[in-house]
Design goal:
The structure is a single chain. The chain has helices at 2-6, 8-24, 38-64, 66-90, 96-104, 107-111, 116-136, 148-165, 176-187, 233-236, 254-261, 278-284, 302-305, 316-321, 329-334, 383-408, 453-458, 460-469, 478-486, and strands spanning 192-194, 201-202, 207-214, 241-243, 247-248, 274-276, 288-293, 310-313, 345-350, 414-421, 426-427, 433-434, 447-451, 474-475, 489-490. It has 504 residues and is α/β, with parallel strands linked by helices. It has a seven-stranded mixed β-sheet with strand order 4-13-10-3-9-7-8. Strands 1-6 form a two-stranded parallel ribbon. Helix 13 links the parallel strand 7 and strand 8 (310-313). Helix 2 packs across helix 3, helix 4 (66-90) runs antiparallel to helix 7 and helix 5 (96-104) crosses helix 9 (176-187).
Length: 504
């Protein structure tokens, strides 16, 4: 009893700390569980209490390093609370992909996720953490002599015993999964680019490839693919368009998907860390290569993009530092359609596309589906509002691609347009939204091909192959191999089975 009385302030502080950590962070991992009756509630209540007990152990040992604790706890607590907010509101799984998306996504895109509830949650977490630090500074018995250290040691041992008994039983819950995710992210090998051999060449002449790299567009929300809404009315009237409905990628966020699309890196995990840029190979074959983007370059694919002979980011100042970003149609103002004599050419146009916040991605005249979203906080919006705003971005995409095609029709070259979104988008499936999470909706990006009349006349066999392959299932690996295949690249081995232009 005397011991309890002596350490009552210490006991009271750690009890309060544990409760606050539970409320702001760890409880988020349990709110979306389908309990299925009393037994489920009972089992997960025990699971939660066990997790909190182990957290007490780690937090107590953490607090023994007093100066370090005072300086780092508010920052750590606020960061973990930020992750917990998204787990609470969208039932996301915190894994290495989420960490990469957070750390490598550009500032301008990240700003579109900010909302008043999110900001309020973060500020509240930070204020509460300062309150806890203030109370912590008054403790006199928080040291290695405290009997609480014995309990903390038992709690930590219990964590490792539980994980040994059943791997991931605690690691899959906040805050543990965030530390595991960061560890996996840091251990992930960095991509290295290889310079192709000098013997790379082509016998092609006068080929004009336009690769439009989209953003967050899912295949089943395009009306030419059978979507019940008329989201692509203009493309529906165009000739020579072939849509591929069965494109697959497990890489559901830009920082991971784009480097894979632009190199010979496969979606299948392997031990390779060195890859070839699509553009470096085409450069060796004397192609004109250019990149025109409406997104500032992310760290994961910046080096790949810069293997283009020309790189243009429209309005880079506003792209990074302003809430008022340019719409994708501004890309077409910068797109220079010239024949470059008999030179082959590939132009990559990188859109902001259908990334959240949807309303910012199209102009007023494309507000066909209403009501639209009026907040950046998903929890305050209806599913109807969110899907309406998203579908309006597809209408804008339809106009963009149609305008580009009309422009390309003026070229005398054999012209080929390939549109591919980097990934899809989750629109309420399983209570989830956006992307950077595994879901069939985010794993099926939109993809289509348009070819000019002179391309059609001069390449009848290839057109036949395109039409025959449109119902096949391809991974996003296809892009690299298809472009090199249609370019008749010699001196570099490609996988013909991954080319939409080959006969199977």
């Amino acid at each position: 009893m005397e011991k309890i009385k002596k350490y009552k302030h210490e006991i009271g502080f750690h009890a309060l700390l544990n409760v606050i950590v539970a409320f702001f962070i760890s409880l988020s991992s349990y709110v979306h569980i389908p309990y299925g009756g009393f037994k489920g509630v009972f089992v997960y209540t025990i699971h939660f209490l066990v997790l909190q007990f182990t957290l007490f152990g780690f937090l107590y040992v953490y607090s023994l390093f007093k100066t370090f604790f005072r300086l780092t706890f508010p920052i750590l607590f606020t960061i973990l609370s930020a992750l917990a907010f998204w787990v609470y509101t969208q039932d996301i799984t915190v894994e290495s992909s989420i960490i990469q998306a957070i750390l490598e996504t550009n500032f301008d895109i990240a700003m579109d996720t900010l909302s008043f509830p999110f900001g309020f949650y973060l500020i509240s977490a930070f204020v509460v953490s300062l309150f806890l630090i203030k109370k912590f500074q008054k403790l006199k018995q928080n040291n290695v002599k405290s009997p609480l250290l014995i309990i903390a040691t038992i709690a930590i041992l219990f964590y490792f015993i539980a994980e040994h008994y059943r791997f991931g039983v605690l690691k899959r819950k906040l805050p543990y999964n965030s530390f595991v995710a960061v560890k996996k992210y840091l251990e992930k090998p960095k991509m290295q680019l290889i310079t192709p051999e000098d013997n790379v060449s082509t016998d092609k002449e006068n080929l004009n490839i336009i690769f439009v790299l989209g953003e967050s567009v899912r295949a089943d929300h395009i009306s030419i693919n059978g979507y019940y809404r008329e989201t692509t009315p203009l493309l529906s009237e165009q000739n020579n368009i072939v849509s591929f409905k069965k494109i697959f990628t497990p890489l559901t966020y830009t920082a991971e998907s784009v480097p894979q699309i632009l190199t010979n890196k496969s979606i299948i995990n392997n031990s390779k860390t060195s890859f070839y840029s699509l553009y470096s190979i085409l450069n060796k074959a004397n192609f004109q290569t250019e990149w025109l983007g409406n997104q500032t370059l992310e760290k994961s694919y910046e080096a790949i993009v810069k293997t283009n002979k020309k790189v243009t980011i429209i309005d880079p100042f506003h792209s990074v530092l302003s809430f008022k970003k340019k719409k994708d149609l501004a890309l077409l103002d910068k797109f220079n359609l010239n024949n470059l004599n008999n030179k082959n050419r590939i132009s990559t146009i990188h859109m902001i596309g259908s990334h959240w916040y949807y309303n910012n991605k199209y102009t007023k005249e494309f507000e066909k589906f209403t009501p639209i979203t009026n907040s950046k906080y998903v929890g305050a919006l209806s599913k109807e509002q969110l899907i309406n705003s998203y579908d309006n971005t597809i209408l804008y995409l339809d106009y963009f691609l149609n305008s580009l095609i009309e422009k390309l029709k003026k070229s005398s070259k054999e012209t080929l347009l390939i549109y591919l979104s980097d990934h899809g988008e989750i629109l309420g499936e399983n209570g989830q939204w956006f992307h950077a999470q595994q879901n069939t909706a985010s794993e099926n990006p939109a993809m289509l091909v348009w070819y000019s009349e002179n391309f059609k006349i001069n390449n009848p066999e290839i057109i036949k192959n395109i039409l025959n392959n449109q119902h096949q299932k391809f991974s996003t690996d296809f892009l690299f191999h298809s472009i090199l295949d249609i370019s008749n690249i010699k001196g570099f081995e490609i996988n013909k089975r991954q080319s939409i232009f080959s006969k199977f």
